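Folds abound. A case:
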Amino acid sequence: MIDIQNMKLAECEALSRWIDPRYGFLSPDKFIPALEANREVYKVDCHALEGYGQDAEFLREKEKEIFPISFNISRTDLEACDIYQKIEDIVARYGLSRDQVHIEITESALNDSCQAMVEAVQHFHDLGYQVWMDDFGSGYFP
């Protein structure tokens, strides 16, 4: 994200893309639904945050600026594991501040239990995170 007032980078977004050696570029709409159906997408989501933590650690060592990041989680993340603890563990491991990590919950999460989503957003807010709604790149076309 660019701050239009000073035209400088203000924030980044972690986007999961898959480049398969056989099938080439696969957009999220090709692989995320299968991962969600098998309650495995949390591994991709946590991997994205883990990568940011590693990058932040590297930048910190080089005394470079670390920009906040937003990353996606899915409704199934809330069901498949203790996603709150997994996020907290990664944030702690890399010494990140919660204001550097913005959580984007996919729009599809609203299709099931609106009350569960309200509770999840509240829990993330209580932990100190910003929460945004996102479509997980489903509108992305190569």
Summary: The two ends are 20 Å apart (CA to CA).
